[in-house]
Amino acid sequence: MKSSWHPCVLRVARIVTDETGNRVEEKNLSTIETRLRSRMLRLGIADLDAYDKFLSANESAERKVLRGLMTTHHTFFFREFQHFDVLQEWVTAKIRSGELSSAKPLKVWSAASSRGQEAHSLAMFLHVHLKQAHNIDFHIYATDIDAESVKYGSNGVYPIKEVQSIPLAYLGKFWSRGTGDISHFAKAKAELRNKITWAEVNLLESKSFAAKHGPFDVVFCRNVFIYFEEQKILSISRDLMSAMREGGLFVTGLSEPISAETLGLSRVGPSSYQTPSKHVQPALSKPVETPLVAKAATPFRVLIVDDSPTIQKLLKKILAEDKIFGEMDLAANGQEAAQLLAKNSYDLITLDIHMPVMGGIEFLEKVYRKDTHAPVLVVSSVSREDRSLATRALELGAKDYVEKPDLSKMKESAGEILSKARTLARMKNTSANTSLELDRAFSRELVISHAQKKMRMIECDFARGSLDLAGLIRSFETEKMSPPNLWIVGNESERNRLESMLRSASKRRVSRVEKSQVFEANAHYVACSSELPGMILDRILPTAGDLSALLCSCRPEVISALESLRVGYVLASEHHNLSVLKKLPWVEQAPVTSYASLSTEVFCGVRKMTRDWAA
């Protein structure tokens, strides 16, 4: 390592290696220094020389802090869902052989459990596929080297957005809404927490813990071996295996397969292994069918219902990553979906809410039959807290919900989409209960307060034909109190055309922007883009405390006007290159049919600026 690093940073790097066994390379030193300086800030220590002295005086206690400080805590519920499928397959095979029964509860070790998402995921999963399906009990031991992570996991409190990523089939009634300062968090109920025992354990020194609590039937040790050298991995793996029963299931991270042959393990799935056993094991490729699992003889067929060609392509690409999904049909709205359902049978339906002709809610009300049609996974930009749309969709029979981000970040939701889609497709013919208790606790009616002090600007593009004006106008009409809507067109001919459409489709007042215009709530105003430079500062800025905009053409004069304003949220239609909007404070990209609900969420404080744009 280069000598330019401060000796204290190199010293801390050696301590991290000694304490955790993690490899510390040149590229890791900047991260170590950054986290170390954060620690120094909390301690009130000004420079590295001073911290070096503090470390010498308090090394024993500080070592424990440093090993936690340098540990990566990135994880999420039901991460690498393939492993849960392997676990289910292994469990049913053990039940078939008689090695697992109501008299022999399952014992699981979630090693390197981080902040507990894995342990809680295992508890929910096993409750459905073991306790509920076969009346077989289980217990999970969750350990991590970091004391703060163990404390965090045992507390069982997580941001609601994290908990909402859990498939509804497993969410059950295990979570409740926090109160007071943690009202935007969900807490695991005692029924779930009591299934997990927490402990601070270093994988390099785990034998005493294993001797006390083992032997274990299943060990999950995932996404931690990537930090170790090969010999350390083999040593830790042997220690974990020695704590397991014969024929046990040993699971590592998908990106860290181990040498099964060297360790005497048999591979039973992706980075999933079985320890040696004297018993003849049932073939894991043919598990016993359980009441909650529908085994697919052929790949699952999916109907994707979304008006955005871009979203359709992205969903197809995401689902195609999992081989259990095969043919995929496309529908641009609920009406097209109804026609396809009349001719074909599907295993899963993904459904958007905002679509022209027939939206998702209307589809669920008029077309969908949950007793005969495939389960519905709503994939929508609408906030899951929206009582009138998101909660309503679930009450009408949708089986789960994914709150998709803007188009540029769609891949970030791939894991959640896949885990929920896979769960629904495999459980489609079951009577598995899904509880909406938590969704109802967080749902609320979104009403824009002080609407007259806010404004929506909608830039129309008749030439491109990408704006579903009728659908957008309808969505504004459903609002109890709507901010003034300022519609921007390119020329006088377009203004006449738009005014005619508004008067035909809306019951609200429609007028041209006049001199000294006072903008009022529940009204439409129409202007040409050429009028913006002379009117924007004098007439809009003093009136509109909050301004959001929908851009369908990105005319230079419109962008210039927005740059000069205190504009808040901007939604750009999906065919635009966002680089032309780089000077605006907050821009997202999504189908224009989502603009009404997205801007409402912004005005109500539900949707907040992302870090990328805030930066």
Q: Which sequence of strands runs across the widest sheet? A: 6-2-1-7-8-10-9
Number of DSSP strand runs: 22
Calculate Rg over CA atoms.
Answer: 28 Å
Q: Might you state the CATH topology name of the largest domain?
A: Rossmann fold
Report the principal-axis shape: globular
Question: In whole angstroms, how far apart are the ends?
Answer: 32 Å
CATH class of the largest domain reads Alpha Beta
Overall number of structural domains:
4
With helices defined by DSSP (H or I, 4 residues minimum), what is the helix count?
25
- Structural class by secondary-structure content: alpha/beta
CATH superfamily of the largest domain: Vaccinia Virus protein VP39
Structure explained in plain terms:
There is one protein chain. The chain is α/β, with parallel strands linked by helices. It folds into four domains: 7-69, Chemotaxis Receptor Methyltransferase Cher, domain 1, CATH 1.10.155; 82-274, Rossmann fold (3-Layer(aba) Sandwich), CATH 3.40.50.150; 300-429, Rossmann fold (3-Layer(aba) Sandwich), CATH 3.40.50; 451-614, Methylesterase CheB, C-terminal domain (Rossmann fold, 3-Layer(aba) Sandwich). It has 25 helices and 22 strands. The radius of gyration is 28 Å and the shape is globular.
